[in-house]
Amino acid sequence: MTPILQVKNVDAFYGPIQALRNVSLEVNEGEIVSLIGANGAGKSTLLMSIFGQPRVRQGSIHFAGEDITQVASHQIAKRGLAQVPEGRHIFPAMTVEENLLMGTVPVGLAHVDADRDAMFTLFPRLKERCNQRAGTMSGGEQQMLAIARALMGRPRMILLDEPSLGLAPKVIATVFDALKHIAASGKTIFLVEQNANQALALAHRAYVLVNGSVRMQGSGAELLANPEVRQAYLGGH
């Protein structure tokens, strides 16, 4: 089986600083794969590099069998890859409904009513807030909206960057439950997450990024049980 996402021997830089060093990983269709690591390990850089910002300097990135290493970001979105960036980046002055409509840009409006209803089922809070300006909502509600907006583009795969950042434990549980439902519906998920416990418990497989390089990989359960991982990322318990 060919993975839906293949990152091969990738180097990436921010200005003169090398952020990724010879990174290789893959994600199979239907999997939840997590990427964990300390702050500054290069996790967000990798997600952004997959989307062409920054461009990788060495190596290649393939999505659904196509080399997308030099493809423009908006064209990557049209190929069925969606990103939920760190910090959410919703449109604060727009309503919840208007934000969801913005998510349909890669695919058009043919399925908008059914897809919006599906998002309101997944996140009932968004239905309650349908006509509210997104910028007035709580951080958790904005995170739900960012995920729902990405799904409105009907992606085959969704990249999530730190979805639990700054959220209360109860809200984190809601978001991670939603990710399970999204995966069960057939979407592929690549999750970058500092909350290693949550990320590894959810993942089929996971990678550990240290100083821009992949240091370890295995099933979520294997890495949860790994003493080195526990010491470094799970508080040693």
Label the overall shape. Answer: globular
The stretches of 5 or more residues where confidence is low (pLDDT under 50) are none
Distance between the termini: 37 Å
Mean of the pLDDT scores? 94
What percent of the residues sit in helical stretches (DSSP H or I)?
25-40%
What does this structure look like?
With 237 residues, this protein is of the alpha/beta class. It is 36% helix and 26% strand. The strands form two sheets. Strands 6-7-8-3-9-10 form a six-stranded mixed β-sheet, with helices on both faces. A four-stranded antiparallel β-sheet has the order 2-1-4-5, covered by helices on one side. A hairpin with a 2-residue loop joins strand 4 (58-63) and strand 5 (66-67).
Topology, pairings included?
Blueprint: E1 5-14, E2 17-27, E3 32-36, H1 43-50, E4 58-63, E5 66-67, H2 73-78, E6 81-84, H3 96-102, H4 112-122, H5 124-128, H6 139-151, E7 157-161, H7 169-184, E8 188-192, H8 196-202, E9 205-210, E10 213-219, H9 220-225, H10 227-233
Parallel strand pairs: 3-8, 3-9, 6-7, 7-8
Antiparallel strand pairs: 1-2, 1-4, 4-5, 9-10
Helix pairs in contact: 3-6
Which short descriptors sum up this protein?
36% helix, single chain, alpha/beta, 237 residues, 6-stranded mixed beta sheet, 26% strand, 10 helices
Quick structural summary:
The protein is of the alpha/beta class and 237 residues long. It contains ten helices and ten strands.
